[in-house]
Structures are given as C-alpha cells and as structure tokens.
Amino acid sequence: MWRTLIVEDEQPARASMRKLFKKADIPFEIVGEAADGREALAIIREIRPDVVITDIDMPIMDGVKLLMQAREEGFDCRFVMLTAMSEFEYARQALEYGASGYLLKLSLDVNGLRQAMMKVVNELEQREKLRKVDKWFPGGNQAEPTDHPEMNRIIGYIEEHYAEEITLKGLAEYIRMDASYVSDLFKKKTGSTLTHYIQNRRIQAAKMLLAETDKTVSEIGRQVGFENDNYFIKIFKRWCEATPNEYRKGIASD
C-alpha cells in the first residue's frame, strides 16, 4: 500500500476523499491529513508519504507552493492536485514542477479517481525500480529518480535499452511530448544532456564488463551499444581519461 497524505482546508472534503479512496479499491493508504500547506509540509518531513493529494486554493500555504517547497527540500513524493476549473492555470503550473496530475473537485468520482491514481501507481513503481538499479553502477553511482515523472520514465527506458539505438525523437514519442521540450527539461532535471547521460550509462556498463569479464574491447563495445570500435574507444577515453585496455590493465594492477 502506498502511503498517502490528504491536504484540504475543508474537513467535509477530506472525509469525502477518504470515502472515495475506500470505494475505488486502489492500493493507497491514507496515513495523514492536513488543513493547509504549512501543516502538510511538517507532516511530509515527519512521515515521508509516497503520495500527497492536495487542494490548490488553501490559506497560509497553497498547494503549488507546498509542491515547490517539498521539491526544494528534496522530497520526491508524488503530488496530485485538487482544483476547481477557475484554478486550472495553477494546476498547469504544478505540472511544470512535477505534479503527477490533477483532479477536478466538482466532477470527481470513483472512476476518475481510480484512473488518475493508477497512473501514480505506475510512477511509484518506476521510482522504486530506479532506486534499485545498481548492477552496472559500481561505487554507488546508481541512477536516481528526478522529481518529474516523465523524465523518470525516460531514465527507466534508458536503463533497460541503453545498449540499443536511442534517439531524442524516439524518447519524445515514448512519453508523448515535444522533442525540443524533452531535451531542455531533461537537462534541467538531471543536469546532463540526453546524449551525455546515455554515453555515461554505456561507459559505466563497459567499465563493469572490462573489470569482471575477459571479453574483448570490441565485444564489450558492441554489448553496451557502440557499433564502431574506434568510436567506443574515443568516447571511453573522453569519460575515463584512458582507453578500455588501459583501464583494464589499471584495474588488474590494483
């Protein structure tokens, strides 16, 4: 069960949300409630929920500011925004900061809640998968999720397909977003361009294979996604300041 915090300034609305969650029969457990963003932030710090369902329009601290503050403090819980039609622009702003989606308060029903929250389930499962990926990342350099679910989907795709041909166009189609927007957002969220991220992923895998197998440099290059031996050696040297053979000899002499 995914631990869930409900943030809503009206108590009847919080009670209604609890009933909807129960009727929807979804894998979420409501572990806390808050009446405003400041109270919610204190609870997030204390219990670290997996999901925050928050109203946008609240006193003291609104839902968007709560999301921004939680992200600034490093919390990667999923956010789903509760909004009225008049607050829709705020909901769009929240999506830019990595909210998983929004729910329209006046028309919310069991089916709508279930559909929205199952999307969150997929994101949470992807987050956990990313946290456990360390097979090819010695020294603790494992991929960590960002605070943006679609960028996490891209990272997850790279983890599974780094040895295959990966293009910006293909990744953009995979998450159904504009290619130029994906490129800019990925760099903003990870601090790396897509090209450098993929190269680094392949080089980390190559380093592991060089250290733990007796496969040739050519075989390893192809296995991690480089079709051309010379290009593999060039990129490896750029990242490691040594050729694959030099790296292997260095590992052997340690």
TrEMBL record:
PROSITE patterns per the UniProt record, alphabetical: HTH_ARAC_FAMILY_1 (PS00041), HTH_ARAC_FAMILY_2 (PS01124), RESPONSE_REGULATORY (PS50110)
Keyword flag Transcription: yes
A biological-process GO annotation: phosphorelay signal transduction system
Keyword tags: DNA-binding, Phosphoprotein, Transcription, Transcription regulation
SMART domains: HTH_ARAC, REC
Domain Response regulatory: from-to ranges: 3-120
Top-level taxon of the source organism: Bacteria
A Pfam family of this chain: HTH_18
Signal peptide residues on this chain, from the entry's feature table: none
Domain HTH araC/xylS-type: 152-250
Transmembrane segments: none
GO MF assignments: DNA-binding transcription factor activity; sequence-specific DNA binding
Matching SUPFAM superfamilies: CheY-like (SSF52172), Homeodomain-like (SSF46689)
Protein name per UniProt: Response regulator
Species annotation: Cohnella herbarum
Organism placement in taxonomy: Bacteria, Bacillati, Bacillota, Bacilli, Bacillales
